[in-house]
């Protein structure tokens, strides 16, 4: 991808996760401390460097809370911080970056800087308020060591996501990090009854009560989500309100692949979703592949397909982003 696309993708992903963290405290202004928390669970080099130092999301949250308490105490203010709740970002609105957080994102892509998560982490460490410096010290990770680790890791070629499903104009793949153990993540992904917890289009799964464990070839009927997390209705055509889900591949705690079809539509394409899992420091690393398979009953429009190809690729990326975000959010 180009520098612009990389920077835009990083900005979007960090924004969503950071604002989710802010929402846990009922805050709408998202600051640099929330940005640091988002980096801790980033699948990019920055997240790998932080986690390799033993920094977990829970530890980082505690360090942020401790820093805020210390700052208030230094001003002679003795008060309890807002209690931490669940993520409500998708149920609410009005979230914005603080001025200094926006400045960090801007500096991370200035000139020859790539705008990726590592560049953002470098700018956070150098941020003039010193907040991130002090939080890292609370975590036992000296800021200069952060830079040294980034320098060391970035000397080597960057790892790219696995693409088990062949990449093309109607498919794609992303890497993702989940702050939970392999067994926990597998239980979420391999349990059909929990699919609505992470798959954004699914609202309800109709299960066979006599079935104990999913087997390859098993199928389920699911009902598409009709309301957003904030309660607003989703307009869905009648033929897309029901989906059939089939388990097409499964290797215990290693990979799982699902196929989604719309039985009430004669021309709807099928969606294949494959997720590979492997243990990683502080959690589980995922490789998520998504492919739309063309329905042979649907007329081909090659010229139109060529014209809308950039929109299709963007749509695939957004779907992958929502899927990876949904899985991660289930454990945060």
Automatic annotation (TrEMBL):
<dbReference type="InterPro" id="IPR036628">
    <property type="entry name" value="Clp_N_dom_sf"/>
</dbReference>
<dbReference type="Pfam" id="PF10604">
    <property type="entry name" value="Polyketide_cyc2"/>
</dbReference>
<dbReference type="InterPro" id="IPR023393">
    <property type="entry name" value="START-like_dom_sf"/>
</dbReference>
<dbReference type="InterPro" id="IPR019587">
    <property type="entry name" value="Polyketide_cyclase/dehydratase"/>
</dbReference>
<protein>
    <submittedName>
        <fullName>SRPBCC family protein</fullName>
    </submittedName>
</protein>
């Amino acid at each position: 991808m180009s520098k612009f696309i990389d920077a835009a993708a990083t900005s979007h992903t960090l924004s969503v996760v950071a604002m989710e963290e802010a929402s846990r405290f009922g805050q709408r202004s998202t600051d640099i401390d929330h940005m640091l928390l988002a980096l801790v669970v980033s699948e990019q080099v920055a997240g790998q460097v932080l986690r390799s130092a033993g920094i977990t999301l829970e530890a980082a949250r505690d360090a942020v809370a401790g820093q805020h308490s210390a700052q208030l105490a230094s001003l002679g203010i003795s008060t309890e911080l807002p209690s931490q709740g669940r993520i409500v970002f998708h149920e609410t609105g009005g979230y914005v970056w603080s001025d200094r957080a926006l400045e960090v994102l801007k500096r991370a892509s200035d000139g020859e800087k790539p705008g990726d998560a590592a560049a953002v982490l470098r700018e956070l460490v150098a941020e003039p308020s010193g907040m991130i410096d002090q939080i890292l010290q609370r975590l036992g990770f000296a800021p200069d060591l952060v830079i040294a680790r980034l320098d060391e890791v970035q000397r080597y070629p960057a790892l790219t996501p696995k693409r088990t499903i062949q990449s093309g104009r109607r498919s794609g793949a992303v890497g993702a990090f989940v702050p939970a153990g392999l067994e926990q993540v597998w239980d979420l992904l391999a349990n059909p009854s929990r699919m609505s917890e992470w798959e954004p289009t699914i609202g309800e799964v109709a299960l066979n009560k006599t079935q104990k464990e999913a087997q390859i070839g098993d199928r389920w009927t699911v009902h598409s989500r009709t309301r957003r997390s904030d309660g607003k209705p989703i307009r869905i055509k009648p033929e897309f309100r029901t989906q059939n889900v089939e388990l097409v591949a499964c290797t215990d705690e290693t990979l799982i692949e699902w196929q989604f079809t719309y039985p009430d539509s004669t021309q709807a394409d099928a969606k294949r979703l494959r997720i590979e899992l492997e243990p990683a420091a502080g959690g589980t690393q995922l490789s998520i592949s998504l492919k739309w398979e063309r329905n042979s009953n649907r007329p081909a429009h090659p010229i139109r397909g060529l014209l809308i190809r950039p929109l299709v690729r963007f749509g695939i990326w957004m779907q992958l982003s929502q899927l990876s975000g949904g899985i991660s959010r289930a454990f945060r």
